[in-house]
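Checklist before submission:
- one chain only
- standard amino acids only
- sequence pasted in full

Submission:
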Amino acid sequence: MWICTPTGSTAAMHAAGGKIMNTNSPQLQYLIREHLIEKHTRSLVEDRGHAMLNSGSQLHLRWNSNHGRVYVDGAHLSHELRLGDEIIINNRAPKLKLFIDDDDERMVKQNKKPLLT
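Returned file contents:
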């Protein structure tokens, strides 16, 4: 599963089929990369793999494998997971100030990939 803020929506998330978000949006975006679907639940699950997480909402995930790892913004920050561990994801972190130029902001508003450098 991939999860991103608006500033993270222009690279890997977009390349994987996600939507480019307005940089002022308070939402988080998530995308399930590999669905593990049982045959009898396919129609209930398939179209729920990509969505926006609104302010005040959260995802509650339970790890169902013996071992695993969650990565935050690449491989430089990770945390080990064990069977039964739970992860809660929301957008309650303090706001981050982002400084981008007018051309990049205009491209984001037009749902185009900005030229962030």
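Reviewer check: Residues 38 and 117 are 43 Å apart (CA to CA).
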